[in-house]
């Protein structure tokens, strides 16, 4: 019955950041930002999804911070970023741009990884100057650019008008989620995770999702319902890798295939058998490895910086 915002120990407990700061978006929204790892190491920026927080990336932060500077932020209204009346894809783009400008030096390049709404954030910001300046490469996990509600398979029935109507009512519910109970874990696992997800993974995700305020959850559900970012997708000109679980009920693999086909420079599409929507939690080593490989390939300083850090630790 705990209302902890995240698990307190184990592999999915968020590590303590090296420092924290507040980025201010164009409309004045205050965005909570955490920075982990060595100050001058190659940079990675992590953007979480709907109803999540920086805690969602705990496994990636813990692994990458050994030799990367990992920047994670809470989307507006999520985690420690205050709620804001502005909902929409442009505010998401504003927030990412503010984070990049607040944390990266002029001309500094980073790998940007976005999960679900975090991937949509990157698509929304594709033409922003800060993204064009700072994005060396990107990873899109379990996301889509449009037609989300009609394609979701949360409701186990044939696609069509009735399923879309029911899905819209479920995802757009204003009802509070309440405490994390065994039933709540089962429901969350069914909707967002693969059948083989272990209890630690399920509990970690349940605590994060249940911590999201119901008004914030509802507000962003309306944005996702009307989402159309196909134009932004085609503007992602950096190398982009795509990852999806084959059992994803929220953004099924059809979205990942459409992303891969439309991206100007798709460098890989990975479909993970039996995994659900929460791929960074369900397949932490694989997702971390994808981010690490993108940094090594597309950030010029990455390979040399890792060698220096290894020598210093010897």
Automatic annotation (TrEMBL):
Per the UniProt record, one Pfam family is Abhydrolase_6
**SUPFAM superfamilies in alphabetical order:** alpha/beta-Hydrolases
Q: Which residues form the AB hydrolase-1 domain?
A: 44-287
Q: Please, which domain of life does this record's source organism belong to?
A: Bacteria
The transmembrane segments are: none
| GO molecular-function terms, A-Z | hydrolase activity
Sorted UniProt keywords: Hydrolase
Q: Which PANTHER family match?
A: AB HYDROLASE-1 DOMAIN-CONTAINING PROTEIN (PTHR43433:SF5), HYDROLASE, ALPHA/BETA FOLD FAMILY PROTEIN (PTHR43433)
UniProt name for this protein: Alpha/beta fold hydrolase
> What organism is the protein native to?
Streptomyces salinarius
